[in-house]
């Protein structure tokens, strides 16, 4: 039977005495991030009495195809798959960090058949036992590691949601750009046909001696220019369709058939309510939540690196059963041991632990700087989207009035040209003005939609910190509906 190397009470007392001078030393305080968001927004609020819940925002678009594409893109996104894997890694690290505070327990079994001497009988020996080991963590290094891994798990969960919000916003952006491109393509088609008709009429007038031959050449050049613009616009729309096919993993012929049902129709979003101050509104951004958890994890890393400069205390023990037999005689019994209590003193390591502690403090300072910078950027993104929304809304009625005015002017100039009262140069100038006004109107509507999408993304897509807690259970348990993060 084995006996303890030291009586357990005396051993622990000895370890505590040896560590009292070092491990009880307080860790240096680390400065927190200097973040002072503004007390109010310095941009026009983007709601005029009609507000929508951000969580259900995509449902409020009057376009079911957009919603279906967002669902498909999130399902096929490699970014989401990668963040899901990162979340699983963070969960495993959190389990490992908690396990470091607990004793380890192993089951050991062995069996042997031997003849130790040539004249000795054959003997059979078997044993079964439990072996335990435990680091007492008097310095707090393992506790700091556990807390750091917990913070990183929370941050990884938030980044998973951030990826979902980003994929939804990117899909919506591509869709809006495609519909805007189709609207421009429709205008380019109207313009090209009008130029072709003008060229035909001019050729007839030249043949009748009413117009000079130079007018025919100018009209033909104008018609060719219209075809070039039409073909260029068609190519841009084709590229956007290809991008949507790749992002949402769609069958291209099927997607084209779905798109044809509402060609050149821009979706109409609901308004987003932004009434809270920046500090409260930005609390729902998952990327900021993750950055804050990075700061917390870096602080625990610094505490762990500092604690590792002090001695470590470990305790081992075992209990088991032994059975042996020889010449038909067998014997069996129990064995146990407690100890040794091992105290490891770091005397000299060439400055490695000190350098690690200094590096951990610098990583903490870097994390605080990153968090503060992201907070400033977040405020800028929200206010920039609100400024763009306000500007596009103000320009809306003016853009419509410009199209109406230039349309009337072009109709009058065309009628005047047909009777010879206006030149082809006057007609082309009126046509260019009308085309520019139509393009400006499409751009204004597209810009407004893209600003709404940018605001949705800047406000975190309706995410909240409770979502990070809920999704910490399992990646498969996390919600996948983009309308309800």
Automatic annotation (TrEMBL):
Domain of life: Bacteria
UniProt-listed Pfam families: OEP (PF02321)
Organism for this UniProt entry: Massilia arenae
Main localization, broad class: membrane
Topology relative to the membrane: Lipid-anchor
One GO molecular-function entry: efflux transmembrane transporter activity
Presence of keyword Membrane: yes
InterPro entries, alphabetized: MdtP/NodT-like, OMP_efflux
Signal sequence, start to end: 1-29
Family membership noted in the UniProt record: Belongs to the outer membrane factor (OMF) (TC 1.B.17) family.
PROSITE patterns reported for this sequence: PROKAR_LIPOPROTEIN (PS51257)
Protein name: Efflux transporter outer membrane subunit
Membrane-spanning ranges: none
Sorted UniProt keywords: Lipoprotein, Membrane, Palmitate, Signal, Transmembrane, Transmembrane beta strand
Record's GO cellular component terms: plasma membrane
Subcellular locations according to the entry: Cell membrane
Keyword Lipoprotein: yes
